[in-house]
Amino acid sequence: MRKTLMKFLLLANLVPVISPLTAYARSTQPVPAHGAIEISAESTSETTSDETEDEVLRPEDVEGAVIHEPVYPEAYKTIDPKTLAKRGEQRGYNPNTIVVDGYEIPYVDMRGNTGADEDYIALSEALDQNLCVYVGDQGMNTFFGHYYNLSDNGVFNPLNDVISFGEGSEVIITDEAGYSRGYEITQVMEFLHPDQTLQFYGDDYLPTLAYEGNGEDMVYVQYCRWDYALGLLISNIGYRVW
């Protein structure tokens, strides 16, 4: 039985790229988006009545899978994230914002969006307006946004131009009522757009993890740049620490 999962890891009409430290050819020309990510997996068992429509992909299901081993915060040696207040704390941050290493970025809450079909269109329209988009479920807090090197006005431009966003950075998410939760970025993943369908975070398929989560309280911030290489993505992932 063949099943196809369609997810959008990159939500943009143009596919730009990343970092001066990455050894890819430099270019300033955008690449058109490729549309839906399609992953086909062959089921090795007979279909049952309780089988769900979507199949959970594991690294062994994808030829050439790239596995990024999870990295947890050092703070987890002394704190249990499950004991943290679920909603967070009121610390005076503005509602509906993320604060990254002290830099505030408003977001549009689109949680529940699946990144497919009509949902993809809605996300693309929001990104076309240069907005920071918030999606995710089951503990995952995912933020997509543009980095426009040529015009220097992308909503995520400050992540590199004003601050040095990366491993060890703090991301504070504040909800509509002013409750805040703090996260630490523990890993930065770089990969080309055509290879995003090969990416796994541990056993979790990254495109699915970004939208559906895995029950852990996490943050995921992704953007792309076209000023260093075409089709290169930066994905920053981390965990809640307060």
Describe this structure in words.
The protein has 242 residues and is mainly beta. The chain has one domain: Sortase, Chain: A. Helix content is 9%, strand content 33%. It has 3 helices and 17 strands. The chain has helices at residues 118-128, 158-161, 206-212, and strands spanning 2-7, 14-15, 31-32, 37-42, 66-68, 89-90, 97-100, 103-106, 108-109, 133-135, 140-144, 170-174, 179-192, 199-201, 204-205, 218-225, 232-240. The strands form 4 sheets. Strands 6, 7, 8, 9, 10, 11, 12, 13, 16 and 17 form a 10-stranded mixed β-sheet that branches. A 3-stranded mixed β-sheet has the order 5-14-15. It has a two-stranded antiparallel sheet with strand order 1-4. Helix 1 links the parallel strand 9 and strand 10. The longest helix is centred in the middle third of the chain and has 11 residues, at 118-128. It is globular, with a radius of gyration of 18 Å. The relative contact order is 0.27. Mean pLDDT is 81; it is low at 1-8 and 10-53.
